[in-house]
Amino acid sequence: MASADSLTVPAAPALTDLPPAPPASGLTAPVRKLLAAHAQDADESGEPDRPALAVLRESGLLGLALPHEYGGTDADAEGLNTAVEQVAQVNASAAIMLFQHYAVSRRILEHGSPALRRRLLPRLARGEWLAASAWSETGAGANKKQLSTTARRTPDGGWVLNGAKSFTTSAGLADIYLVLAQTEEPAPDAAPDTGYGAAGQTFFLIPADAPGLVPDTSLRLTGMRGSATGFVSVHDCHVPDTARLGEVGTAASIIAGVRDSGATLGAVSVGLAQAALDLAHRHAERRGLLAQQAVRHRLVDIAGEVEAARAIVERAGRRTAPDPGIATLHSKLVASSAAERVVNAVERMLGSAGYVASNEINRYGRDARAVALMGPTNDLCKELVSLTWNR
């Protein structure tokens, strides 16, 4: 577990002593098999998928988003999206945890002080620590405009945080949380409206064992049931100023920059769509249905949906669009909608076989729906895209 001292005491090993970065290759067969087996168990129990997390820690995948100098693999956004897609094909909950870890790791790399990067990034790259985002909260809305979580200065120059976060992926599993808090009252003209977050908000990196931080995984979800998505509260949680990520009051600009990275939740949707397509092929082969032209053509139509979704996710990862941020938003919208259509089409193809609770298509459908509700939600994605038309 992370230590509260880890943000101030440089206990990380010298960078020259780090083991070589794992190869940026696809999932090995043993890793795929383990993640798949754990996905089914976690979906049935609704408990956090700790075994899958252990696999991720040992696989080297947690270091893909970080440079070699910190022990990572230095994969670009396209490589990260590919890794997330491959994990999502067998375990969407693990893919969500992986995606959030990548997102926080990159924010530390981009906005952390040299000392903070040196202390945290080697641990995150090696998989010793799992990172999670704690941004959402009840009543704040999808755009995080009305935060109730506050951070106030203390006489010693540190901060004390109070509030509660909801729908935090990896709650209770993460070793460090990126917490969004209101640090000052926003002035009307303090910053331009980015559509997500507000002026006067600041990010803080809080270790899991910091006094006053309490995770709650009692939330029972319909989909992504192994993702440990739950609540995280902070009550009189004291952290040093070194725990702050970025300048005070600049969280909204950091959030706006996330879209430009090219990493997209659409990759999770593509993985789920591919898993559903593979299931349809196995069903058709097992039932001897491939001899029927109608079945073959339906599979071609479904495969076309998957390929189209993958293409827009790859475009986002390449960051070759005139506005990479808008392309990333579109990739989430298009891929998540495509995944739901693909799952529905496969369900109809399976017939009564898909109506059995244990059939994987039901998990795929519930997980695919969850992606559309994850931040930024699909409705917020549309708003973020359309806001640019009024400027």
Q: Could you provide a short overview of the structure?
A:
The chain has 391 residues and is an alpha+beta fold. It contains 11 helices and 8 strands. The protein is 46% helix and 12% strand.
Task: Characterize the structure shown.
The chain is α+β, with helices and mostly antiparallel strands. The protein has helices spanning 29-45, 50-59, 77-90, 92-111, 114-126, 251-259, 266-286, 293-318, 324-350, 360-373, 378-387, and strands at residues 131-134, 150-153, 159-168, 176-182, 201-207, 213-216, 230-239, 244-245. A hairpin with a 5-residue loop joins strand 2 and strand 3 (159-168). It is globular and about 75 Å long. The termini are far apart.
Low-pLDDT regions: 8-24
Tell me the Rg in angstroms.
21 Å
Enumerate how many helices there are, as a single number.
11
**Sheet/helix structural class:** alpha+beta
* Total beta strands: 8
Q: Report mean pLDDT, rounded to a whole number.
A: 90
Strand arrangement within the widest β-sheet reads 1-4-5-8
Task: Please tell me what the overall shape is.
Answer: globular
Report the order of strands and helices. HHHHHEEEEEEEEHHHHHH
Strand content: 5-15%
The biggest sheet amounts to: 4 strands, mixed
Helix content: 40-55%
Distance between the termini: 46 Å
